[in-house]
Design goal:
Length: 216
């Protein structure tokens, strides 16, 4: 199973990818997570990406294409992948097609999380994650069961992303509209786009995605 979760920043891609990993053993490939890791390590890639990410611009296609390329060499019994935050441009779409076909893999679905843009700033400025296991939370929509303690690993340390501020979010949305949304018509012509209401509660969004995957 290979699917792309597509939607603007804060649409819920990471949240849903996480659930699909737990429920189906699929592997999440988030270029955003990979880039943040590179920035934290201070690697040459991280040094190039840091300011671009802080501004909410897109890093060059070649950099993210390589990150994905490095992760696709898996054994034939691998359960599959969820692309989260990739591809984001037509150049990345074409690169992904080549990377998949070179390995005999087929893209099953592009699932678009349809969301109301006005809600996204609220979603993103309230987002935080566990510093230890990466579980995602929200100040209002997904609080830990015990305040200040991660539900998954019990850690008491949480973090917020430096680019999750209102100004950067607006630029990230502009980038999404200009460069990412236009890739949808291409996938439409292939008949693999499915739409899900991303404004529904997290569990309902998950159920809608599961129903799409089950119907394959
Ligand atoms: P993305 O990966 O698309 O940028 P996230 O999955 O990180 O988005 O979600 C952004 C924030 O919104 C997180 O704090 C998450 O807990 C919250 N969130 C995700 N899906 C929903 C939903 N369906 N309803 C309410 N809040 C949500
Ligand atoms: P995300 O975690 O998906 O919200 O991504 C955070 C930031 O990382 C984006 O604002 C971009 O600067 C960068 N980024 C992540 N994925 C990509 C990608 N596929 N192409 C270009 N830039 C990306």
């Amino acid at each position: 199973m290979i699917l792309i979760l597509l939607g603007p920043p804060g649409a819920g891609k990471g949240t849903q990818a996480n659930r699909l990993m737990v429920e189906r053993g699929l592997v999440q490939l988030s270029t955003g997570d990979m880039l943040r890791e590179a920035v934290a390590l201070g690697s040459p890639l991280g040094q190039r990406a840091k300011a671009i990410m802080a501004a909410g611009d897109l890093v060059p296609d070649a950099l993210v294409n390589e990150l994905i390329d490095l992760r696709l060499d898996v054994s034939p019994d691998h359960p599959g992948f969820i692309f989260d935050g990739y591809p984001r441009t037509r150049g990345q779409v074409d690169a992904l097609d080549l990377l998949l076909s070179a390995r005999g893999f087929k893209l099953d679905f592009v699932i678009e999380l349809v969301v109301d843009e006005d809600a996204l700033v609220d979603r993103i400025t309230g987002r935080f994650t566990c510093s230890s296991c990466g579980e995602g939370y929200h100040d209002r929509y997904k609080q830990p069961a015990v305040e200040g303690v991660c539900d998954v690993c019990g850690s008491v340390n949480f973090k917020r992303r430096p680019d999750d501020n209102e100004e950067t979010v607006r630029n990230r949305m502009t980038e999404y509209r200009a460069k990412t949304a236009p890739i949808l018509p291409y996938y439409e012509t292939r008949g693999i786009v499915r739409r899900v209401d991303g404004m529904a509660p997290i569990a309902e969004v998950n159920a809608a995605i599961e129903a799409i995957l089950d119907a394959r």
